[in-house]
């Protein structure tokens, strides 16, 4: 359920209401009983967490190309770590 922002037209106070989308707007200020008006707000920023949502999903083409180049260079460094593991196995022979 969304949180709606309101302003009283009589006393000028701002307040919020947690309402279902299907509920009608609040017409009366809870502070003074005056007329309330629903405001259009920017809303909260979205933050997707979990599998399937990545910050790079909506990046520019240039950024994606640079990221691909970076991941390819990291792929070469992982093969170097494998050779390090083979040298440790030769140490265990001694």
Would you mind describing this structure in some detail?
It is built from one helix and three strands. With 94 residues, it is α+β, with helices and mostly antiparallel strands. The protein has a domain of 36 residues. Strands 2-1-3 form a three-stranded antiparallel sheet, with no helix packed on it. A hairpin with a 5-residue loop joins strand 1 and strand 2. It is rod-shaped and about 65 Å long. The C terminus is likely disordered.
Average of pLDDT: 74
SSE order, one letter for each helix or strand? EEEH
Overall 3D form: rod-shaped
Structural class category: alpha+beta
How are strands sequenced across the largest beta sheet? 2-1-3
Helix content: 25-40%
Number of strands: 3
List keywords for this structure.
1 helix, alpha+beta, three-stranded antiparallel beta sheet, 94 residues, disordered C terminus, rod-shaped
Helices, strands, pairings?
Blueprint: E1 3-8, E2 14-18, E3 36-38, H1 61-93
Antiparallel strand pairs: 1-2, 1-3
Brief sketch in words of this structure:
By secondary structure, the protein is of the alpha+beta class.
